[in-house]
Amino acid sequence: AGIGKCVALDLARRNARTILACRSRERGQAVVEAIRVATGNPAVLLRLLDTSSLASVRAFAQAVLREEKRLDVLVNNAGLTGLPFAITPEGLEQTFATNYLGPFLLTNLLLG
Predict the structure, then answer these.
(1) Rounded CA separation 49/78 (Å)
(2) Per UniProt, which keywords does this protein have (predicted)?
(3) Which of 62, 64, 67, 93 has a 20 to 30 Å separation from 109 between CA atoms?
């Protein structure tokens, strides 16, 4: 939703192969379908990613590097704010992991 959806919609309108990285399969797939209909671009894909989980980030990056010939643009748009203090299963503070550590790791893994 929000900025991420707008960016994905714009990229898809430009006929870009667009991968939406979402935590929720159901919500993500609904956005993928809406963007495909709005743009006529069938190359809009959903991949699951939770940037608060470094294991999820690693799995996502491995899949992208394996499945995609190239990556031209990466938009790190995940973010949390105002949630109560929480620790991830990996022992990281959730907001810091989601907003900084996950996107930092993802960018570095995708640089190849």
Answers:
(1) 10
(2) Oxidoreductase
(3) 93
Contacts of 104 (CB under 8 A, 6+ apart): none
Give the tens place of pLDDT for each residue, 42-101: 999 999 999 999 999 999 999 999 999 999 999 999 888 888 999 999 999 999 999 999
Q: H/E element holding 19? A: strand 18-22
pTM, rounded to two decimals: 0.92
Torsion 87-58-70-36 (CA) sign: negative
**Single-letter code of the amino acid located at 48:** L
The residue type of 78 is A
For residue 98, what are the CA distances in angstroms to 37, 39, 54, 88?
30, 30, 9, 10
Question: Which of these, 72, 25, 17, 71, lies nearest to 46 by C-alpha position?
Answer: 25
Consecutive H or E run containing 30: helix 25-39
- Residue 19's DSSP bridge partners are 45
